[in-house]
Write a structure and sequence with these properties.
With 335 residues, the chain is mainly beta. The protein is globular and about 75 Å long.
């Protein structure tokens, strides 16, 4: 798999420094751990849930990126003609997502000794997969980032406009002609992708051995599933807010500690929407570098307050040379 392949150009335009990168690449925004808030430029690989390191979980894509620096400000512009959807695990995989689609027409009552309707569950038929075509004007994604430093703060403003890589499962009801039974109503589930526009912010303030930081986005056009059978297609678009507040601590020369509070908030009317209005998460990261940075123990804990669920990741890396690394770890899940 070709992960990255790009060309860089560095120069000056009208006395301002300009850096340009074109090709298959990763573009990193934000600094939250475990869950992404601003890091939304590249789509995500969820086949190993959220256990992959971010550098492995991002799906590199073709893009043109330019960074212009002048008078204490840096302007970054991105154009991405290549659409990459989020990679979801197979239904039978270890980290398979909930395959249920809300708002389905209920199935027929069970008919004795007839395997066709055994169980009486909803009848689902996969429909069209309306994946956007690459290198088309309607599939283009583009973004802007402006960053600067003021009064001891590092500040950033962001704008991102793209087709959301998370699929939308659109439900429609059609009649299927079953021999011996006549027309039978079934659920046809199409896979669509909707454009989402986001405005974001970030700040960071060093405080000696500590650093206080935060980041967030407000998005318009996010799709949410509904369990209301009267809804024509089983989903609705709503704005949402996502933000993270963090505190970093460099404890001496060998230890790094990070604590986070992350919240996802769905705005607008709530009738029939499956996802809760607010989802809250807290995390703690502890990482050390011992024995001349050859031994790296790490502990990461992520806790979901609403569902009372958690992930505890423990690992120990041994790096005897620059070319050799041995790792041992265990991931614990609850909830």
């Amino acid at each position: 798999e070709l992960r990255e392949a790009y060309l860089d150009w560095h120069g000056r335009v009208a006395g301002m420094r300009l850096d340009v990168r074109a090709g298959k690449q990763q573009i990193v925004w934000g600094q939250s751990f475990g869950l992404r808030v601003l890091d939304v430029v590249n789509s995500q690989d969820y086949r190993e849930f959220i256990l992959d390191e971010f550098v492995d979980a991002r799906t590199p894509t073709f893009a043109l990126r330019g960074d212009l620096a002048a008078r204490g400000f840096t302007l970054q512009a991105i154009v991405m003609p290549d659409f990459e959807p989020d990679l979801l695990p197979d239904p039978e995989a270890e980290f398979a997502l909930d395959a249920g689609v809300p708002g389905l027409l209920p199935g027929l009552a069970p008919i004795p000794d007839d395997p066709l309707f055994a169980g009486g569950g909803p009848i689902l038929i996969p429909g069209d997969d309306d994946r956007p075509r690459d290198w088309r004007a309607r599939s283009l994604a583009f973004g802007l980032r402006v960053s600067t430093a003021a009064r001891g703060f590092d500040l950033g403003l962001y704008y991102w406009d793209r087709i959301d890589p998370s699929p939308v499962f659109r439900r429609r009801i059609e009649a299927l002609d079953v021999p011996g039974y006549g027309p039978v109503p079934v659920n046809v589930v199409d896979t669509d992708y909707e454009r989402v526009r986001s405005v974001g912010f970030s700040f960071a303030r060093p405080l000696g051995d500590f650093s206080l930081w935060g980041e967030g986005t407000v998005s318009h056009g996010r799709a949410f599933a509904k369990d209301d059978l009267s809804d024509p297609d089983g989903w609705v678009r709503r704005p949402d807010l996502q933000y993270a507040l963090g505190l970093d601590w460099n404890a001496g020369e060998s230890w790094f500690v990070n604590a986070q509070w992350i919240q996802f908030v769905r705005m607008g009317p709530t009738h029939g929407i499956e996802v809760d209005r607010a989802r809250n998460f807290a995390s703690l990261l502890l990482r050390g570098e011992l024995l001349a940075e050859t031994l790296v123990p790490q502990l990461f804990v992520l806790y979901g307050a609403h569902e009372q669920e958690s992930i505890v990741r423990q690992s120990l890396d041994y790096r005897p040379t620059a070319r050799l690394s041995l790792a041992l770890g265990v991931d614990l899940f609850s909830g």
